[in-house]
Amino acid sequence: MSESFPVEELPAALAPLPPAAALRPGPVRRIGSFLLRNPGGVIGATIVLCLVLSAVLAPIIAPYDPLHMGAGRRLTPPSPAHPFGTDEFGRDLLSRVIYGSRLTLQIGLIAVSISLGTGLLVGLVGGYSGGWVERILMRGTDVLFSFTDTLIALAAVAVLGPSLTNAMIAVGIAAIPYYARVTYGVVLVEKSKPYFDAAVAAGAGHLRIIFVHLLPNVIPPLIVVASLGVSAAVLAAAGLSFLGLGAQPPSPEWGAMLASGRDYFTRASWIMTFPGLAIALSVLGFNLLGDALREALDPRQRRR
Amino acid sequence: MAQVVRTSKSSRTGRIAALVLGVLAGAAVPLAALGARAADGTLVWARDGDSDSLDPQRTTTTLSWEVFAQIYDSLLAFDESGKIGPHLAKSWVVSPDGKEVSLTLNGDITCHDGAPFTAEDVKYTIDRALDAKNPSITKASWGPITSVDVVNPETVSVKFSSPFGAFLSFMTDPMASMLCRGDAKLGDKFGVSAAIGTGPFKLVSWTKGDQIVLERNTAYKNFGLPAQNKSAPHIAKLVVKNITEAQSRLAGLKTGELQVAEPPLAEVTTIKDDKTLTLVTAKNTGQDNFFEFAVHRPPFNDARARKAIAYALDIDGALDIVYGGLVDRERCPVAHPVMDSEQDFCKSVGYDYDPEKAKALLAELGYGPDKPLDVVMLSWTGGDRDKLVQVFQNQLQQVGIHAKIEMMDIGTLNARVTQENEKTTGPGTFDLMGWAWFDPDILYALWHSPGAYKGYSTPELDALLEKSRTSADPTSRLGLVHDIEKILLQEAVMIPVYTPGWNWIYAVRAEVKGFKVGPFKRPMFNDVTF
Amino acid sequence: MARYLLKRLLSAVVTIWVTTIAVVLLIHLVPGDPVKIMFAQSQSTTPEQLETVRHNLGLDRPIYEQYAIYMSRVLHGDFGHTIRGDQPILPLLLGRLPYTLALALSSLLVATVIGLGLGFLAAYKRGTALDSLCMVLAIGGVSVPVFWLGQILILVFAVRLSWFQVAGSDWRSLILPALTLGVTNAAVVARLTRSTMIDIFNQDYIRTAWAKGLPARTVLSRHALRAGLVPIVTILGLQFTYTMGGAVIVENVFSWNGIGRLAVQAIFQRDYPLIQGFILTFACLVALVSLAMDVLYAVLDPRIVHV
Fold first, then answer.
1. Chain C interface, mutation test: which of A9, A10, A146, A240, most C Cβ atoms within 10 Å?
2. Is residue C197 a contact partner of residue C228, using CB atoms and an 8 Å limit?
3. Which of A5, A116, A159, B57 supports an S-S bond with B136, CB 3.0-4.6 Å?
4. Contacts A255 to C, Cβ<8 Å
5. pTM score > 0.90 for this model?
6. Is A298 left (phi over 0), alpha (psi -120 to 50) or beta?
7. Residues 6+ apart with CB under 8 A from A165
């Protein structure tokens, strides 16, 4: 489910920064200039932008109400009136795909927020505190990691019941270890640097150390993990909806649309094709963006 | 990251080789354990689920009793026209006061373990069903039995505390299958990995979730099933496979791996044109799909809200969109052909599609365009019901009712409906339920207090149900059934929708001959040859 | 070596132990009365019967006693019975497990062969059109939803063309599911292999080998591949876990009779004892395989035990 996760993030985050780090342009400028030179990144960013626009502008650009049965005749192939065709109830498929982008974005944002928020907290507290707090938190993270996210998602849906919200929560919880580990790794690296002890000796408060020293170093790798995490979350949630454990009808969620389109594949293949393409394209976009961000922000790769 | 590894070349290669071999061996071992391909003379039948149990007294699901009908026999059986006739029992006598039924068995019946089937086995079966500590799940359907006596090896006498008109028809049901006494010795394995009956097929094995393997019972005698073959089935083996994906079943039919399977309903029209497959549709299934409500709290404690739903639904339109002629509209609480349930009578006392009346009733209750009525519509998966409820949801939307859909497994639905009837708070819920029965006695099971789901009940309805249960005369019984149906329909306690509803269409490979589905959806393989 | 193995074993045991706690808690996380939920689907249980069950399962006792009861049962091999059909759970799970393992291992084989090949090629030809092509394929493979791919493969290759079988439980029906899962995994393996091998190719000793004029075959196999073996085994070890997760979906798409399909059915049927048994079995399996991979890792590169 989450095969696209950047397992190699950990060693990258642990690598020492080049000495000229303090003199380089800030992360935002670096991202901007790098993306422009990286075609994969540009494509990825464009796709993501289209997704966001589609989600935000859905009521304006969708030609029909996505729930309106009888917008067209049932099972009509793509035509000028219905560019993606109609489904088994006569609903316009293009409108459903467009509205589905809202759900896709929601899934990505909510799931990643849960994972990022919790993972960041766990990694920060664990790495910063040391001692038995650190051991318990990080051991707990390892245990959570060894339950594959499929298992966590299934268990969460079993307890909470099938619904898109529960699927989002489940997927979010399942990905916490990735964010926790990356954060933890960065915190450990920073703690080993001379300035850290100096700051502590100088009497800097905990919050100051965290916000001024730790967070700025944690954020770049987390951005990379997050953008790849969105694609993983979207795939995972779509998978749950496909199994019937996520979005419920008549929700225009792409995974659920794929599931109901199965029965009509021989007669009306477009019902399954377009939502599938939408999922693949969105996931591709976030993956490309994530790859490009990683190359832009990873200090080690910059050296090559 | 990586540095020179100073281990010798050969040991490294050895380790690599070991790793690869290990993976291959690991993959091979489970594969070797997998089932081999079916041999000739074997018919493979694929369904969308698996049996719950092979013990007829532990479950009521259709998927389970379809298999009971292969392993076991019942005392009586429906003939072609749906009339009750002999099967294991060759004749029966009902006492004048209706409180005793005496059944005489055919001779020379053998159980799968070789033991003869006698009246002792009948007594064992009924006693087990009524056992106080661990009763059958269908205990109520056996009726108010006080004792079962073995008069002689071929005659058994069943005594009731009051007359029970539905007893004989229940004796045709697979859930009243006759067990052999050998089952008692199987202990925990009975119903799980072993089962002994007198039916046309013997149980070989059950790999739960995958397949049930049955083999021909060479000693079989068909006394009453509506099949031409009066002795052992022609096929050597019957494999009942569980394949939940409809498209996979269709693929299996086309490749020839499967011979009989339920196709995806959406593909039925294309299959009609396919020369390699034929369609067999069950007639007279007795399946009734209907809406019922959680009546112990608002809004559905008020009959007007229920009637509003009845008026708001364009059932014919919805059935046409989703099934396109594969199902029939059902207007009666008892599905036709049970007791000649009269569609015209039910239509006259029920409610038809009239959105304006629906809106008017909702307005009376205080709902309108600014204040929509929020409810939850429940149903169970399969049979394209998920599509049907979406169409209904859309129709309800048009009159200002916001229905949220929740789909679940039938077992979960049964539990949920009971739960909703016990709750006193929460949005109104109603459900699209399905029951199949061959006798109006189903009305007693569903609606006599406390009811199957602790739902609607009144003393008036209870009295009518009790009278209809004990009435032995068919004409007066029909009158009572009509009175009961009138209450159910006029009060909109239930809204019948369509029949059949589940597992009624079979796609069969053209070279397979003789597959038929008996009355009340009993699939029969006795005549099959290919 | 022994200390390392002991540490890893302890880690696996801790994971399994935490799983048992989670499993016992699971039934209490479901809103409502656990016993009522478990028997909600039986139409003829009396309140007395419910109380008996409640007492037998220890649900009327404090949570730590319940845990002790559950653990003692589990250690005796009694995982309880399913709600639907009253089937003993452990034999049920163990019977379906070989199918899932067959699927996981065969798809892992496909993923390894295709993924390693593509990744190695891309790393070797880094910067060329071939590299770009391989990576485009890889990123495509990672982005395609596995259930969509599986469904299309069924409809094209089984229904339309009848090349493959889908309805059986033998190796012939395993081909399509293994390919589906393997292809999506291969993409991940390819990407990870490529970045690993690029690191290795950049190492000084490899550059030295090139400079010495050694033939490409020698450099690649004797030096690069051997050095890459350890991280690649790590990658593959992680892939097993991902594969087990992906197997759940693929089993449902292809109606393949493994524990993943059982789990989804159990969830639909709210069969909580079965769900508990599934979680425990699945977690144990993954923990054991991780342990095995750790041991393998140590065997392949004895230096790692001192890390």
1. A146
2. yes
3. B57
4. 145, 147
5. no
6. beta
7. none
